[in-house]
Design goal:
The chain starts with 10 loop residues before the first strand and ends in a 7-residue tail after the last helix. 39% of the residues lie in helices and 14% in strands. The protein has 3 domains: 11-88, NAD(P)-binding Rossmann-like Domain (Rossmann fold), CATH 3.40.50; 103-222, no CATH class; 253-489. It has 19 helices and 18 strands. It is α/β, with parallel strands linked by helices. The protein has helices at 18-31, 70-77, 103-123, 136-152, 154-157, 175-185, 198-206, 210-216, 226-231, 241-253, 269-274, 294-302, 336-345, 355-363, 401-411, 418-423, 433-443, 451-464, 479-484, and strands at 11-14, 37-39, 48-49, 61-64, 86-88, 126-130, 160-164, 191-194, 260-264, 306-309, 325-327, 349-351, 367-372, 386-389, 391-394, 397-398, 426-429, 476-477. It is globular. The strands form 4 sheets. A 7-stranded parallel β-sheet has the order 11-10-9-12-13-14-18, sandwiched between helices. Strands 3-2-1-4-5 form a 5-stranded parallel β-sheet, with helices on one face. It has a 3-stranded parallel β-sheet with strand order 6-7-8.
């Protein structure tokens, strides 16, 4: 058969094997095609999708490359996608047979290599760490947790670690952040990092074997002890002197001379632009309007702060204009470097549950969390953090934190997906400009407390302790938010 590509985008391969990995290289070298991922019923990993997930992907065609099981895979995929999008590539297709070893020999070589690598990993006490480099938040938090444990936990110091990094440049969410962590990795004798090379790719493939994955993968597990880990640690990554000089020169060009505050409101534009062949709508519940920060921005400017709105690709401009309020994504100075440098130098940051503000955790910068959702998932960069959640509505009534926790824990659905809220008939309401202003005032100690406020905070901590994933996070919730929304603490 002859391969013809009317469209070079949204192409997937199935299954995930050395054969399809070789075929991926053939497509790239001969047709300049970068595949969007793999479809495989048994294996798991970055860009490997179970067939049931196909409906969530934008698929142009799926090429099935499997000499022995091609027809079985084809029939299984027919349950999830129309046959016009499925193509079985025969073993002897002239277009690629020179680029792929005979399947029988690949299986033999694969078994031999697996035994050799298994013995090497076991003998040298290796564990494998996979970095999620294409999402800045997870990349930052997982690196921080891993490096903290390597530095402080004896059980980690007694092991050797292979760090598997990106497979393609497109998998790097931020090159500057990546380089900062790579500089730290290189200081440790027991950490070996593999980037975009054959060893990295083969080990990524090897980890799809359930036995190897279970035996050698290092589960960083930063979520279980996140609060204690981050509020007590010092920054691990740092800029070099010449990089600091470079960053400060750009700050002068931006006319930032005062202490500045970073603000950020998550929208869908970044993912839709940079990963446009994937449906990211399941994150929409986290979105917010940057212009609802206006009252807080004006207040902070009056207090002597400059404001920098973060982001690389955003949906809307700030409507409020002021010399000390910089809409950085629309400036001439936006870059991977400045995205990270700005957070590292700010006094504190304001924003919702987003990867961009997780950079605060790396540099121990306080966060004022607004529009937080899941509502039991506050920020935890420092002990000075404070947050207010979005409001959840069921049957036209606001529901309490306790009710929310019960709904989520009884539903067995992920509270990190838009469809969960839709299935439970929950509507989401963002924080008002006044709510955002008041939590900023409280953070800056421009606020008077009462005995009842202390009582409300104790009630909040007691209810929040029932959270399945975030019970140990002791971030303070906004006092005025609890005053104005007493239903939030209802039994």
């Amino acid at each position: 058969m002859n391969l013809e590509f009317k469209n070079k985008e949204n192409i997937y391969l199935s299954p995930y094997t050395p054969t399809t990995i070789a075929f991926e290289k053939y497509l790239k070298d001969n047709f300049n095609i970068i595949i969007s991922g793999y479809i495989d019923i048994e294996k798991q990993g970055n860009n490997i999708y179970n067939p049931v997930k196909i409906k969530n992907l934008s698929v142009y065609q799926i090429y099935i490359v499997s000499p022995n099981w091609g027809n079985n895979i084809y029939n299984n995929l027919l349950k999830y996608i129309h046959k016009t999008k499925l193509i079985i590539v025969q073993k002897n297709a002239n277009n690629y047979k020179k680029s792929i070893l005979n399947f029988k020999y690949i299986r033999i070589i694969d078994k031999i290599l697996m035994k050799i690598i298994n013995n090497i990993l076991g003998y040298f006490k290796f564990k494998i760490v996979k970095l999620w480099t294409n999402r800045i938040g997870e990349f930052c938090l997982e690196n921080e947790a891993f490096l903290y444990k390597v530095k402080n936990y004896k059980s980690y110091q007694d092991k050797n670690f292979i760090v598997l990094s990106y497979l393609h440049e497109k998998d790097l969410a931020n090159k500057t952040l990546y380089n900062l962590y790579r500089n730290v990795f290189q200081k440790y004798r027991n950490i070996y990092i593999f980037e975009n090379n054959f060893i990295n790719k083969y080990l990524q493939y090897l980890l799809t074997n359930k036995f190897i994955h279970k035996k050698y993968i290092c589960d960083i597990g930063q979520r279980s002890n996140a609060y204690e880990l981050f509020i007590n640690k010092r920054p691990i990554i740092e800029f070099k002197k010449q990089e600091i000089v470079k960053g400060k020169n750009i700050l002068q060009k931006l006319n930032i001379k005062k202490p500045f505050v970073c603000i950020f409101a998550r929208d869908s534009q970044y993912l839709d632009t940079n990963f446009k062949y994937h449906d990211w709508s399941y994150h929409d519940y986290r979105d917010a309007d940057i212009n609802t920060y206006e009252l807080a921005i004006k207040y902070l400017i009056e207090k002597g702060y400059s404001i920098i709105r973060l982001g690389s690709v955003v949906k809307q401009e700030l409507t409020f204009k002021h010399p000390q309020c910089i809409d950085y994504p629309y400036s001439d100075f936006q870059s991977d470097f400045m995205d990270i440098f700005l957070v590292s130098q700010c006094e504190f940051a304001i924003g919702g549950h987003s990867g961009m503000l997780d950079i605060c955790n790396a540099f121990s910068k306080p966060r004022i969390g607004v529009n937080h959702i899941p509502i039991d998932a506050p920020s935890y960069s420092t002990k000075n953090d404070i947050y207010i959640p979005k409001k959840i509505i069921l049957d036209k009534n606001y529901i309490s934190l306790k009710k929310y926790l019960e709904l989520m824990q009884n539903s067995s659905l992920s509270h990190f997906k838009q469809k969960t809220y839709e299935k439970l008939n929950l509507k989401i309401e963002n924080n008002t400009p006044l709510e955002i202003l008041m939590v900023v005032k409280e953070y800056l100690n421009d606020y008077k407390y009462t005995e009842n406020d202390k009582y409300n905070l104790e009630r909040y901590y007691k209810i929040h302790s029932k959270s399945k994933q975030f019970s140990n996070v002791k971030t303070k919730i906004g006092t005025q938010f609890l005053r104005d929304n007493p239903w939030f603490l209802d039994d």
